[in-house]
Amino acid sequence: MPATIPGHSVRFGSQQLQQIRKALRIADVVGARVTLHQSGAQLRGACPFHQEKDPSFYVYPDKDFYICYGCQAKGDIFDFLMRSEGYTFSEAVQSAAAAAGIELEVQTSEEHDDERRRERQRQKLYHVNEVAMDFFRDRLHADGAAHAREYLEKRGLGPEVLHHYRIGYAPDSWDGLTGHLQGLSLIPEALEVGLLRESQQGRGPYDFFRDRIMFPIADSFGNVRGFSSRILQSDRPEGKYVNSSESSIYTKSHSVYGLHEVQRHLRQADRVLLVEGNVDVLTLAQAGLPPTVAPLGTALTAAQIQLLMRYTQNVWLMFDGDSAGRKATLRALPLLLEAGSGGKVVLLPEPHDPDTFVREQGVEALRLMLDRSLPVLDTFLQMTLASPDAPISERVRSLEAVAGLWKWVPAAQRGPYMNQIALMLRLDVKDVRPVLEPVSGAGRFRIPASAPVQVLPELNLSAEEKSEYKHLFYLICFLSQHERMVSDEVLQFLGDQLASTSVRDLWRLILEDTLWKNTDQLLTILPPAIVKSYQEIAESMKNIAQPEETLSEFLRNFKLHGVKRKIRELDAQLQALNKQEQGELYRNLLLERMNLEKTRNQLVQFRGATHDEEKDPEYHQFS
Fold first, then answer.
1. Which of 211, 212, 393, 453 could cysteine-pair with 229, CB 3.0–4.6 Å?
2. pLDDT at residue number 109
3. pLDDT at residue 442 is higher than 60
């Protein structure tokens, strides 16, 4: 993993990213990890991100780009390093810069006092969590924790797994941890990360976690960012499972339990199991089953899946077998499909969870369940499609539920799945096909009338780059006012639509540090020539009268932008293929292009535009 100077951070801008790309050939970076063979103007090899018999992984040296037509993984040098090494974007840049012999700017405290202070504060918060973790671990072995140890023993958890996962116990006291931290002058930090709470009666801080089993939540570097906990006395009014409150170092929807403990095994295993409970994680780890993590009691999020897919494309799901677990599974499947996960789904029998299943049925029985698991889409079909004996209206309704996910099914798999669905519903394929064709609505993103049209300064940018920069500026301004309206899924979607390397790099930097919250820092990473344009757009977007409508129309319009870009990419790929030698791949890509063209026409019609829309000057401004 790239090394950084302790207490320092590394800065880089779009110019340095371009410099790294010029210094490193993507064929060399990928070729160090994948055996590549010449295939026309491209290089071809077996995809490193999923198992395949026929190589469908291509590197385009002239475009500094790679794509797998099997699992849909694609991107540039930095994307490849993030996927193959599990790096963050910043780590990937540092690794590539080191390989290219390019020195990145290191910030010192003298040059960037504000940022250094923020880093020191983060280290203080990590430290107070580490101190609390040691306190909880020590209390687990104290006289007053006999019932906690008995609970863990009843769950079949031995000392080795408890030690490895650093499990502890929060005593049944209002001031146990408070007194400990007071002596170390860590009360302000403990309040900030939610270990303590202020009394409403003005009696000072008190322990937030009381009489609970404590599960530390560590990031990939081992920093303790927060805690998950389970209450031991069921008659208490507090929630059974409670996590740390969100802070500057902990966001529940972006974290998973157990990742730090299993990350070094993920590449070798090439899969990760997602279960619901922390105890499930410990039980499966103790049983020697594949690396397992849990989503911390929250509904599974796209951000959590993307975090895991830095390490492996194969994210498996094994939620509880009860009614709530089935519902959680059904909610999670579309997220896995959209992310392109090659994982499978284990449907445990009711009322088991992974922990009870292993304890009652045994490890080998669970291994058998893993062997019999189904791919994500097959599971969704099994859980969603109506019985073939159901009324035709009911079968069609269930088919429409599948149609909502169809756009995420790779083109090469659509034909076989369409036949399978027709058989499962006892319908004719010709009746199934129209329902499953991609259907999307789109409208024009209309800026409020008070907002003047801004024109980007000349930067030798293409029309597409200018368009994408403007999209990005409007998005940043929207996020600065209405961040809660924009889900992680939407942020991921927007990033996927960006084609321009410079705009995509800028978006990654902004996203990684949520820079829409810090305008001053944001301005330091914008290319100087476009700072004025951003400031003018920010001024025009100060008061958004109808945020819901503005966001909705922006997303619909951006989708059309992405569809057109994908059509252009497919046209280039089709032109580069040998139709005779690569006939099957050619046909699959052609089918995908036809589907995209249908989607494009539907989006254009929704906007009330014609196929001559490119002649419309407004189109160039906002699409």
1. 212
2. 46
3. no
